[in-house]
Amino acid sequence: MAADPSEDLATRTEGDPIATVDAGVPPLLRRLADSPEIGIIAALIVAVIVFTSINPLFLSVSDLQNPLGVDLAGFGILAVGESIVIMTGGIDLSVGSLTAFFVVGSAWLNVSEHIPVGFAFALTILAGAAWGLWHAFWITRLGVAPFVITLVTFIFAAGADEALAPNPITISSPPFLALVGSSVAGVPIAVVIFAVIALAAWFFLERTYIGRQIYAVGGNKEAARLAGIPTARRITLAYVASGSCAAVAGLIVASRITSGTADSVSGYELIAIAAAVIGGVSLIGGQGRIVGAVAGAALLVALTDGLVTIGVNAYYQPMVVGVVLFFAVILDAVRTRFRGRAAARTGLEAGKGAGGEPAAAGGDP
Asked: Can you name the residues that pair with 305 across neighbouring β-strands?
């Protein structure tokens, strides 16, 4: 005779506060805990509908191409790189200052040093990867906290761009300006580059063995090491990806403003981190998806540009980002706690199934 599911539920939850809590969680909340990007996409749709209803020009073709599309490309690329770092359990505070540095550096290479555009682009991206290697060396070899070493770069790069170009460097090269000024089938080249980077990162993290190892390193670094995963290499790969993404974002910003100007960007590192966290990338590491980070970046761009479109003072934009980030961090904490309870319940049930009672901590196997 088949067991009654209701009786089984009562048996599992009686005297088990963790299971009791889980049993009372609505299916929708469980779904959002497992796939937080669904909620972000829903919020993005609502934001677009609200702003479009107030000002129909918000979704005009020209606005989707620039500034919305180009802004999303810059922020989204930074969010992708930042997300990979956070998934390893680290953080990269330098991406904003590095982006500004590469805005100046790329213009300096092309205009001041007369280096061809393609070669200047390649050198800029290599420099970004080198910064990532620099961070990874201190983190993996000497145990320096990611927060500290990337903060050092943040401060250094903030002054280096001004030292490199005290005055703006005007960019006039058509191939350089084509990053933003030209399009493919109506889509700016910058957006195409962003899409390629996002798809490549998604495939790498979710469809390759090395990508899954990055999640393992962020989930439990010591366990990953004992399992034979080269943790130092995976962390290095993450920071190299973040530095390279900052370089690409710098090229896009330089093309958009048509000059290498010091302090051309501000607060980009916070937007990158906010986009990742809003999209479900957990600050404790080991959790999150690129789809969520892209959705988080799209939501932030829609909010900031939408507020401007409807005539809200630009000074309120950082406040909006701060409020959204606050709720994202709270939701991240709730998701982490929910998953911890679910894992604990699974462990208790496994122990009961194996020996009739939960295994005592530290008991003999």
From this structure: none
The pTM of this model reads 0.82
- Residue 201, classified by CB atoms within 10 Å of its CB into exposed (0-12), middle (13-18) or buried (19+), is buried
One DSSP character per residue, 155-204 reads: HHHHHHHHHH-SS-EE---HHHHHHHH-EETTEEHHHHHHHHHHHHHHHH
Tokens of 338: 């929910």
**Domain boundaries in the chain?**
65-269+283-296
- CA 294-178-298 angle, to 5 degrees, is 15
State both tokens at 125: 């991206």
Residue 176 Cα distances to 100, 227, 256, angstroms:
16, 46, 10
The encoded tokens of residue 81 equal: 């790189």
Nearest CA among 93, 104, 96 for reference residue 163: 104
Instruction: Answer positive or negative: Cα dihedral of 269, 190, 289, 143.
Output: negative
Per-residue pLDDT of the chain (365 residues; tens, 9 = 90+): 444 444 444 444 444 444 444 445 556 555 555 666 777 888 888 888 888 888 887 777 556 666 778 889 999 999 999 999 999 999 999 999 999 999 999 999 999 999 999 999 999 999 999 999 999 999 999 999 999 999 999 999 999 988 998 889 999 999 999 999 888 888 889 999 999 999 999 999 999 999 999 999 999 999 999 999 999 999 999 999 999 999 999 999 999 999 998 877 888 998 899 899 888 898 889 989 999 999 999 988 888 888 888 877 777 777 877 887 787 777 767 766 766 665 566 555 555 555 554 444 444 33
Residues 6+ apart with CB under 8 A from 207: none
Q: Do residues 190 and 69 touch, judged by C-beta distance below 8 A?
A: yes
User: CA-to-CA distance for 325 and 331, rounded, in angstroms?
Assistant: 10
Rounded Cα–Cα distance for residues 260 and 321 (Å)? 26
**C-beta of residue 92 within 8 angstroms of C-beta of residue 249:** no
**Residue that is written with structure tokens 């970046």 in the block:** 297
- Dihedral sign for Cα 353, 355, 357, 360, please: negative
Residue type, 314: A
Q: Which residues sit opposite 259 in a β-bridge? A: 170
